[in-house]
Automatic annotation (TrEMBL):
Physiological role: Catalyzes the phosphorylation of hydroxymethylpyrimidine phosphate (HMP-P) to HMP-PP, and of HMP to HMP-P.
Keyword line: ATP-binding, Kinase, Nucleotide-binding, Thiamine biosynthesis, Transferase
Top-level division of the source organism's lineage: Bacteria
Protein name, UniProt field: Hydroxymethylpyrimidine/phosphomethylpyrimidine kinase
Catalyzed reactions: 4-amino-2-methyl-5-(phosphooxymethyl)pyrimidine + ATP = 4-amino-2-methyl-5-(diphosphooxymethyl)pyrimidine + ADP; 4-amino-5-hydroxymethyl-2-methylpyrimidine + ATP = 4-amino-2-methyl-5-(phosphooxymethyl)pyrimidine + ADP + H(+)
GO-annotated cellular components: cytosol
Pathways per UniProt: Cofactor biosynthesis; thiamine diphosphate biosynthesis; 4-amino-2-methyl-5-diphosphomethylpyrimidine from 5-amino-1-(5-phospho-D-ribosyl)imidazole: step 3/3
UniProt cross-references to PANTHER family, sorted A to Z: HYDROXYMETHYLPYRIMIDINE_PHOSPHOMETHYLPYRIMIDINE KINASE THI20-RELATED, PHOSPHOMETHYLPYRIMIDINE KINASE
């Protein structure tokens, strides 16, 4: 059987834990064929980001045209965009209906704290997103209000959903809710809290990339958004659990995308 094709538009992570590299691992782990459009090249590892080189918008659109001109892409996710000019190019493709089941992961800051994007770039794409997946820091940057509690996550998700995306998931990995990891899903006229046991680990590099990539795979397979989001949360919880005793790198290590330790 021919696998479903999914596309990632994101930056390259030389350490392999996030960005394009993480997305392709998730696609493969979940049975999809992964394609990619690279928006920037980074020099990074588990300890941090050492350098970022954004690619010219024309180089990004050339990659996009090559992929879409040959593959029947069923879902698309975006990560690091780099700058508003690249975001404009991607938004034009989305506006033209070329990016089905678009999942926007508004990558603004790396796990290490290094800035990787600007709010204006993310805002270009949000109106075209079927699902947007900001973490708490990204939701705060996009709404201009604090997002440090579950209640504030709910308010941020509802505010962002009112501004364009069909669904918004504010991921709560940075909020310890009585030993649980709580994500807030808003869309379709409802707001839902998704709960899972909190995984005690420092190896969480690429969690947001992996979550949004998993959502895209499930949307490509035909799942409704709430089902896709729930499945992605279960996948990331397993991947965090599998990698918590790993010793890959001296900093925040990657996830167990393939279930090697589970």
């Amino acid at each position: 059987m021919t696998p479903t094709t999914v596309l990632s538009i994101a930056g390259s992570d030389s350490g392999g834990g996030a960005g394009i590299q993480a997305d392709l691992k998730v696609f493969a782990a979940l049975g999809a064929y992964g394609t990619s459009v690279i928006t920037a090249i980074t020099a990074q590892n588990t300890r941090g980001v050492d350098a970022v080189l954004p690619l010219p918008p024309r180089t990004v659109t050339d990659q996009l045209d090559s992929v879409l001109g040959d593959f029947g892409v069923r879902a698309v996710k975006t990560g690091m965009l780099g700058n508003p000019a690249v975001a404009d190019a991607i938004a034009e493709a989305a506006k033209a209906g070329r990016l089905p089941h678009l999942v926007v992961d508004p990558v603004l800051v790396a796990t290490s704290g290094h800035p990787l994007g600007v709010v204006e770039a993310v805002e270009r794409l949000l109106p075209y997103a079927q699902v947007a997946t900001p973490n708490c820091a990204e939701a705060a940057a996009l709404t201009g209000r604090p997002v440090t509690t579950v209640e504030e996550m709910v308010a941020a998700a509802e505010a962002l959903a009112a501004g364009g995306p069909a669904y918004v998931v504010v991921t709560g990995g940075d909020v310890d809710a009585d030993g649980e990891s709580v994500d807030v899903l808003c869309g379709g006229g409802t707001t839902t809290l998704l709960r899972a046991p909190r995984v005690d680990t420092r190896h969480n590099h690429g969690t947001g990339c992996s979550f949004s990539a998993a959502v895209a795979v499930r949307l490509a397979a035909g799942d409704p958004v709430p089902v896709a989001v729930a499945a992605a949360k279960e996948y990331v919880t397993r991947a965090l659990t599998g990698a918590r005793d790993w010793e890959l790198g001296a900093g925040r290590g990657p996830l167990d995308h393939f279930g090697w330790s589970c």
